[in-house]
Design goal:
Its EC number is 3.5.1.88. InterPro entries: Peptide_deformylase, Peptide_deformylase_sf. With 161 residues, the protein is an alpha+beta fold. It has 3 helices and 7 strands, in the order H-E-E-E-E-E-E-E-H-H.
């Protein structure tokens, strides 16, 4: 359908918890297609609905050639630990080492209301946690150590459009 513009920090939509999808409407179907179209670009691992200005609990992903989506995701389980570079489409140009669980499992639904379970380690685990954070109004900068977070916010203010 459409590749949508990515909202960037400090856009308030990124800090607002998203609403649960209660009915699969034509608008929700268009949203899913837009999420899939917008994430289908090299270097994009995941994209939440609020990153394209829609306050609903949905995200798309593009991991190792597999593109998909989940509605109303709930982070059910995490384990282990990884510490590695993380970036975000809504925080362009910045990459910071970020601590995450190595394994994550998310449960949600698809457009037919059927249960979807996504799980993985490494990049997949990181993406699942990152996108679920977006849907509750957090960006990965919130997970940084205090001084790194300050540095990142200074950079964002200095490079705001």
């Amino acid at each position: 359908m459409a590749i949508r513009e990515i909202r960037v920090v400090p856009d308030p939509v990124l800090r607002t918890p998203c609403d649960e999808i209660t009915t699969i409407t034509p608008a929700v179907r268009r949203l899913v297609q837009d999420l899939l179209d917008t994430v289908d670009d090299p270097g994009r691992a995941g994209l939440s609905a609020n990153q394209i200005g829609v306050g609903l609990r949905a995200f798309s992903y593009n991991i190792e050639g597999k593109i998909g989506y989940v509605l109303n995701p709930v982070l059910e389980e995490t384990s282990g630990e990884q510490y590695g570079d993380e970036g975000c489409l809504s925080v362009p140009g910045l990459w910071y080492k970020t601590r995450r669980a190595d394994y994550a499992r998310v449960r949600g639904i698809d457009l037919d209301g059927k249960t979807v379970v996504l799980e993985g380690r490494g990049l997949m685990g990181r993406m699942l946690q990152h996108e679920c954070d977006h849907l509750i109004g957090h960006v990965y900068l919130d997970r940084l150590e205090k001084e790194e977070r300050r540095e990142a916010m200074r950079y964002m203010r200095a490079h705001a459009k």
